[in-house]
Amino acid sequence: MDTPVTSRRRLLRLGAAALPLAALGPVLPTAARAATGPTGATLRMPAETDRHVRTFMAWPALSAVWPSSLGAVRRDIANVAHAISRYEPVVMLARPGQAADARYECGSGAYYGIDVVEIPNDDLWIRDFGPTFVVAPGALAGVDTNFNGWGNKQTHANDAVAAATLLGQYGVQRVQAGFVGEGGSLEADGQGTLLATVSSLVNGNRNPGMTQDQVEQAMKSALGVDKVIWVPGLAGQDITDCHIDCLARFVAPGHVILDQPGPRTAAKWVAVYDETKKILQSATDAQGRSLTLTELPGPDRDRMRVRVGPDSSFLSSYTNYYTVNGAVLVPQFGDTVADGTAYAILQAAYPGRNVIQLNIDTIASGGGGIHCATQSQPVVPPAV
């Protein structure tokens, strides 16, 4: 049975506060170009495994989204923040009226510190509404991907402008993308290759009237990538329209972790996995390399702490993990065999990092994971 929250993976529209795209700012350019660094190098979306300055997170704000679980999901978020703070600083966005509570919950036991900044938000999914950072030698910018509530499925008046506010507060140049998307729809290897699902980007609820080629060119321009490897995904079955960060992730250039659905997963998601595997097995990256695939099996839904059916919106994906400086944070669902297998696979894939498993059941009940709830600011490469 689902935890009683309004899931981000159900196709719901919450109220009239959703902003039309035109309200996000000036008319979007057809292909906004990322800025260049001081030597003229194009800013490029780095690999998440590159070193971070800090991790950004967001304090869950609305009881309408988490009607009976707001306290529990805030505890999950605080626990994730504390785990990250063992390895790097954390900045938590929070509404001004909720900042004191966020400071209280996050204030003790933080190793590198957890700072709370007063920036209004609607929900916790900062991967999607926050800036996607791009770097070049001596330069940093933040790409605003024009968050529109996953195609106006959820209220997002504050989340839609949070990226611009955050970048302004930290003095980081803002690049307005020429497409509408979310950070969870973008997976980069740091060497010019991007993984993405067609369903989450070439979709009339984000980019009406744009062809796949036009979306791709806009992504290449804003993110500094050379090649996009597209997989079909699946539209209309979850609020994200099948984000790539629950499906396939770069461990390193040329090496991809692929989410393998666990027992009692709905057949439609097994089909997504099968299609994705077939495409990645024959794909090459921007450097012409074939991809090495490592499969990461999901848990048995009958053996988790939270018992859910095959069509539940509970995100039982280990692949939605997050890499920080020196560690990998991954969910632990209570299926001891699958949890142990995920630990072993990720420890082998990331031998120089500690694998930290966390109970995030309330976050997962909302259809997201640790990666969805975080966004990294990369270290700027030294100027040449």
* Percent of residues in beta strands: 15-25%
DSSP summary: helix tally: 10
What value does the Rg take, in angstroms? 19 Å
Supply the CATH architecture.
5-stranded Propeller
And the CATH topology? Answer: L-arginine/glycine Amidinotransferase, Chain A
Unreliable runs, pLDDT <50, ≥5 residues? 1-6, 8-33
Helix content range: 10-25%
Q: Can you list the strand order of the major beta sheet?
A: 3-2-1-16
CATH superfamily placement: L-arginine/glycine Amidinotransferase, Chain A
Q: Compute the number of strand runs.
A: 16
The tally of structural domains comes to 1
Taking the alpha carbons of the first and last residues, their distance comes to 56 Å
Structural class based on helices, strands and sheet pairing: alpha/beta
How are helices and strands ordered from N to C?
Answer: EHEHEHEEHHEEEHHEEEHEEEHEHE
Would you tell me the overall average pLDDT?
90
Structural overview:
The protein is α/β, with parallel strands linked by helices. It has a single domain, classed as 5-stranded Propeller (L-arginine/glycine Amidinotransferase, Chain A). Helix content is 24%, strand content 20%. It has 10 helices and 16 strands. The strands form 5 sheets. Strands 3-2-1-16 form a 4-stranded mixed sheet, with helices on one face. It has a 3-stranded mixed sheet with strand order 4-5-6, with helices on one face. The protein starts with 51 loop residues before the first strand and ends in a 6-residue tail after the last strand. 53% of the residues are buried. The N terminus is likely disordered.
